[in-house]
Specification:
The protein has about 375 residues and is α/β, with parallel strands linked by helices. The protein is about 45% helix and about 10% strand. Strand 1, helix 5 and strand 2 form a beta-alpha-beta unit. The mean pLDDT is about 95.
Length: about 375
């Protein structure tokens, strides 16, 4: 709290073009800027040459799913969006602008982002709750000619897949491993979809009511689609699902997994307890219950599975390579690049560190 108060936020606008005299002013603004505007009016593609568009991203939220804290609203979302902008600049030298919308209506959000799009090179959707986040992202991807990504979905899925590939490599397991995902919101659904696309078909997804399976009466939309694609014969609670599982991936809420549940898994289980700030099970408890590899979303434990490893590089690659629409093939390639960078993974190191300077370029190479 003191740090945020001292700096009064975390970002500011800085001029790249010096304005030191009347000539500088005449070139940067009127009358000189008029010539630039006329050229862009004739050819909109020149925006990439003459304006900030080629290196800018709008970080857009409605505040309906702020971190793991719930619907806090756009005002409370602003410090998080500022933080996101800091990470874009720090890791990928991208100018990102936090935009917190005073509406949580799907149609209004889509409309506003479309209106904003001409001034940006990409749109990063952030902290928008499920299920509306799926439709918002899909429709904006369809209608805009710049890259759009809901980071809670895509960035998270990329890093989870990368960590899982190396964890399974260390454990000596493959695509047939039995994987339980808890959480069927934006992140959990995206992770499940990417794992299925990669070839992990022994997959069980749970929500707050238990296992998602075909025939459950309350399923609609993305959850119904997951039920059709997983087709498992497991029913009941998360505890039931974890029996004889090889991998647990938590994208839900803190302290919902206990030691007995970990002990019910197969030998040397992999536990990704990614709820923030409190994991589904703390690493020490998971280890004492027999977990072989443990990862969290936190920076104070080994194996941090955090989307900061993905989104700066994803947008760096998209902006540099003029990618208008990102694909699952790109995301899988990005995950493989991340995993492959760790040449000799161990139980305590299955993913690169967030401050490794090579990570952004590794990910960016996949987005082209």
């Amino acid at each position: 709290m003191r740090l945020h108060a001292r700096y009064v936020g975390k970002i500011a606008v800085k001029n790249k073009m010096p304005i030191k005299n009347r000539r500088d002013l005449a070139l940067a603004y009127t009358p000189g800027v008029g010539r630039v505007s006329l050229e862009i009016a004739r050819n909109k593609g020149l925006m990439r040459l003459y304006t900030m568009k080629r290196n800018s991203v709008a970080v857009v939220t409605d505040g309906s799913a702020v971190l793991g804290l719930g619907n806090l609203g756009p005002e409370a979302a602003l410090p998080v969006m500022e933080g996101k902008a800091v990470l874009f600049k720090e890791f990928a030298d991208i100018d990102a602008f936090p935009i917190c919308l005073g509406t949580q209506d799907t149609e209004e959000i889509i409309k506003v982002v479309k209106y904003l799009a001409p001034g940006f090179g990409g749109i990063n959707l952030e902290d928008i709750s499920a299920p509306k986040c799926f439709e918002i992202e899909r429709r904006l991807i369809e209608s805009l000619d710049i890259p759009v990504m809901h980071d809670d979905q895509r960035g998270t899925a990329v890093v989870v897949l990368a960590g899982l590939l190396n964890a399974l490599k260390v454990r000596g397991s493959g695509k047939g491993s039995r994987i339980v995902i808890n959480g069927a919101g934006a992140a959990g659904t995206a992770v499940a979809n990417l794992l299925l696309l990669y070839g992990f078909h022994n997959l069980i997804v749970c929500d707050s009511k238990g296992v998602i399976y075909l025939g459950r009466k309350d399923l609609t939309g993305e959850k119904l689609s997951l039920a059709k694609r997983t087709k498992n014969n497991i029913y009941g609670t998360l505890s039931d699902a974890l029996k004889n599982a090889d991998v647990f991936i938590g994208l839900s809420r803190g302290n919902i997994v206990n030691g007995d549940m970990v002990r019910s898994m197969n030998s040397r289980p992999i536990v990704f307890a990614l709820a923030n700030p409190t994991p589904e099970i703390m690493p020490a408890k998971a280890k004492s219950a027999g977990a072989f590899i443990v990862a969290t979303g936190r920076s104070d434990f080994p194996n941090q599975i955090n989307n900061v490893l993905a989104f700066p590089g994803i947008f760096r690659g998209a902006l540099d390579n003029r990618v208008s629409k990102m694909t699952d093939k790109m995301f899988i390639k990005a995950a493989k690049n991340l995993a492959g960078y760790v040449k000799k993974p161990t139980p305590k190191m299955i993913i690169p560190g967030v401050f490794d300077k090579k990570v952004v370029s590794l990910v960016a190479k996949a987005i082209k």
